[in-house]
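Box 3.1. Reading complex inputs
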Amino acid sequence: MKKFKIVLFSAVVFMLVETSVYAFRLLDGHNHVVFADVSAVIAAVVAFGALAHALVGYRRQGPIDKSVYKWFSLAIGIFLYFLGELTWMIYEAVLSKDPYPSVADAFWLLGYIPLFIGLMYAIRETRVSFFSARTPLLCLVAGTIIAASFVFLMRPILASTEISSLEKLFDLAYPILDLLLIIPTLTILVFYEGGLLGKPWLFILAGFISFAIGDSLFSYFSWIGIYELLPFRLIDLLWLVGYLAIALGAIYSEIIAEMRFEPPRKSESSETEFELMPTCK
Amino acid sequence: MRVTSIPDVALTGEKICSIGYIFLPSFLLYFALVFVKRDELFSKRFLLHGLIFIPPAVFLVPMLLSNVLIERVVRTSWGFTAVLGPSYFGFAVYQVGFLAIAFQLILKAYLQSNEKRIKNEALFIQIGIAIPFFGGSITDIILPLLGKHPFELGFILTAFSGIAIGYAIAKHKLMILDSSLTAKVVLSTMASSLFVANSEKKITMLNKSMLDLLGYKHGELLGRKIDTVWRDSKIIDENLTSGQRINDYHTFLLAKNRKPVPVSVSLSVLLDEAGTPIGSVGVAEDLRKMQTYLTTVTSLAETVDARDTSTAGHSRRVRDLSISLANMLQLNSDFMRELEIAALLHDIGKVGIRDKVLFKPGPLNEAEWRQIKTHPLVAVRILEPIPFLREMIPIIRYHHERFDGHGYPAALVGSEIPLGARIIAVADSFDAMASARHYRPALTSAQIFNELVQGRGTQFDPELLDLFLTWLREYELEDVLGKSADFHEGLQDLTDEQVELLISKLLIGNQNEVEERIARSFIEISGNLFDELKKLAGFRICETIGGKLNEFSKQNGAPFYVGEGRVRIEANSSFGLDELIEEYRKFFLLLSQSVSDVVGKRLFDRMLMDALAKHGEAVKLLYTEYLLKDKKLPVYKGVAVT
């Protein structure tokens, strides 16, 4: 657990530094853009590294079975996100071009496919029916959110004549695709309710929710044309939180898989209580 | 472009050279499809995969006729190079997407295959695809966007791809099709119904006669598992393992309309040049003519039922109940078909019993009983002339045998009685109890439950009965019986006495027998939980829980040990049965709590129910009502309290 606490602490420090830069406007103009883009690339690399490490960790435990596929798919998805961040950085920080829409979006959109496949693998391995228990309720909630977003965000964007069709398509696609990741992640959490295996998914869910809020706000801000203004670029922090949360989920999952049992020490109490103790290697 | 100094010529040259790059992702994806679905190679379905060449064809026109993909060329130190146009975005989506799909297909084939040659082939194809996937993303998309124009690495990367795939072709015999092509030509010209399955039991060839027999079109079955048309295909494994020809194996193939087609199959092994089995060739003979006779006999069975209103539909209900029970045992389709027919015909021998005896309202005298007891043998005499029914005759002959050896006509004991006959015995008794007769009304659900449980291990096979009860408890009796009777209630809620009665039956017998019975189910159930946990959380977590349980055993002197995800039980422990079960309870509670802590309660319940489902109702109730609860078992020194 010590390892996780160190990573968590580092993530909090990273976010504090990021927030300080935004809040106190320590950088301005192009310097801020470079800082924001490089931070996103670093966060994506951290998330990809954590997922790849989890994948290798599971692989080391024995013969490959389908449980490895979910980490593989999630890692591929986040790698494509990383390529998206990298391309975005090249456009915005190096070439000083408007990066939206661009090839970066192609990477992000492609990233949703393996991420969704990974989540489906995770659901399938529980062998609980996707349509059991609370899933209909989750779908209802998701449907309500989609309907609300359609009325307040998507319809005005669709009606807009100021932005290109491609931009409209992306503005609509990101929030919807984010929801498509949130629903299965929530389902996984419901299946593992109260179990140790559910905890990593809590972080991953937080990551996807963070992405969803970031993407929705980005669609809205870029539609009304205020994203470039520094205060509104605070939403960049949501993507950083998203990547870091996913990284924490992967690391937590690996720690659970690496758990060791330590026999309890003699104590005054006659009753011996056992606990699963995640330990560091 | 290094061969000219004229920009326009260089631009045209770049465009022409890019044709190869445009088609490369589609070629590699098609190549991956050929690799993973090579058995479908000549089917119409596979030709559909050609649609993946549409995107490059679409890109080709604007690339050649406009500057949307390649805008212009710039001069570098080593020659001209392309500057990407505004529509390059769409091309990048296609390029990265197709290569990613191809990579994933091959990776899946690599992970799933156990054959070393296939693994080697897949590895080199993966390398071949990964180079343009990762390298191309950097050199052709990211660097040009940065305004960097490195030396045209694309040529070198493509060459590496070619070398990797070429190596797989040369060294690992990738894409050898000679033997399958030869076999295809020979077999398709033969008049008999033929199929060829490879060592993975996938259909690699079918001739027209076989397609006509099953009602499929050419190509619909290629590459699919033989199980699609032949549920009981285990015989192919036997054929491949033994290398011996198998003649006249009576079975059923499944037609496209899902109707079974009775056939006699002869199987031969296909060998490669080294004499290694690479598949099986099957020749099937249609046996449907025999079924006309069968239809007549089935009608006869229904006529027997119809002689009396109280037994109308009995044979069909026994068939349905028997099939439901057999489904729980996951028996093969051939057995199911035999059971289905046997269940329909089980009482056909009653045509030889006089109405006066058969429908007598009061108790039967000895002579009448003797006559009744002849009906299985009468059935055998009726059915013996039909060769197609020969497998079913023992089931019908022995369906009145009792598990304890007090049945008729042969007084067989336990597993001497054919499985089908034991299944029909349970179904037959259940339907008889649930139906009204001239001399008594139908029994209530509680009475039926008690009667069935009383017969556990004496009249009925205990394990089959437990499974039947599990199945029965999921439904309302009127749904099970297909009747609109309103006096039947379900068995979902058992009384404490009913639970106790069933568990006491499980615990009856001498201590060793009972210990062995409980230990077997305990080992299996714990093992199933560990297996599931291993899949979900990895091996180490199982070791962790195992360590924790071992520590508990050590501290409490419990006779259990966990190693390699299996619970072991020490023999010759000094515990009495009630003490031993108490130890099971403590140990199982700790195991359940540990697993539940990891996977959550909801998932643990599902895992436990799955593990218990294989063991039937008595074991299920023992775990859910006793071992997981602080409740005293109805057992005293190995003898059940009834």
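In summary: The CA atoms of residues 101 and 164 of chain A lie 9 Å apart.
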